[in-house]
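Appendix C reproduces, verbatim, an entry submitted by the partner laboratory led by Prof. M.T., so that reviewers can inspect both the input and the predicted structure.
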Amino acid sequence: MKKEIESSLNESINIKVELLSSSVESVIQIANMLIEAFKTGHSLYLMGNGGSAADAQHISGELVGRFKKNRKPLPALALTTDTSVLTAIANDFGYDLCFERQVDAFVKNGDVVFSLSTSGNSVGIINATILAKKKGAKTIAFTGKGGGRLKDHVDLCLEIPSTDTARIQECHITIGHILCSLVEKELFG
């Protein structure tokens, strides 16, 4: 057990060190995109499947609730949370349209759509991201190494330098927390 624990922690640390040397500028660009959207009255929509759905909800919760400061809530919505909408769309149209139909219903020009996919190849996420871009939204993706097909359909793609789902998701939430902190400090001092 000790070796597995040490190995997992060291792997996580090494990936984050690599991310630190390769992606700080991308994180700054993403933060600025979110800050500009919130400053101009636009909303953030987040989506993902499985653990990435949980990460989308987590980030949304930090922005609507609070991260470190008691402040005005920010308009962030995880498209992963309404089980009635998700199951109705999945039943009536197919699971690949679960997020696309919500993007069609809610996203407006100038909003930001944040797609989380460890592989970058989720058809439903890609479909929704393409539609968001057509509607004039700014698009961000968090993926694993290589970015999958999703990276070709977004304005900014943060690729975690790993193919291990657990390590990718650990980095996604770490960067998500950093973004929440940057947004909060910029908007609320």
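The two ends are 44 Å apart (CA to CA). Additional entries are available on request from the coordinating office.
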